[in-house]
Amino acid sequence: MEDNVWRPTHLTSEQMEERRLVAATLLRQGRLSQADIARHVGVSRASVCRWAATLAQEGPRGLAARPNLGPPSRLDEKAWARLGRLLDRGAVAAGFATERWTLGRIAAVIEREFGVHYHPRYLERPLKAHGFSVQRPATRARERDELVIAVWPKRDWVALKKRPSASTARFFSGTRPATASGSGRARPGRDAG
Hints:
This protein is mostly helical.
């Protein structure tokens, strides 16, 4: 039975419906327990229990996929592509003082260019969904001197790197030699002599 385990990495609504209908078929056959069906389709036992109740009340059509009734996307795919081009030009080109893009700045560009208001707190998810990722600027000291950094490994590191001498090559153990009792230390409360 392990060969037929349902394990896709991403489920579309059609795949979730198919999974529910596979579970419904197994429930109607009555050969497997709900726990076995849950393991077979890769869900919790509570989900199978809920599906069994829906199946009993509404039949197989109760397990069919329902349309997503969430709000429609406020920007279409062309607008997201245009936003990507605007972001690629840089924040300074968009009218900001520095090149750092923040969610607030991106929200301002979207409102200015497309007339759509996004609160910056809720902008991260749609940006990720359309292929944008967080870019963190590299922090570097203002005093950083690239020439000194380039020369250091050749000049200073060679001087610091030493080869071990013959006297330091031997290992030194700081422990006492073992005594006849097998212990290298005197026991508490006894005479060490």
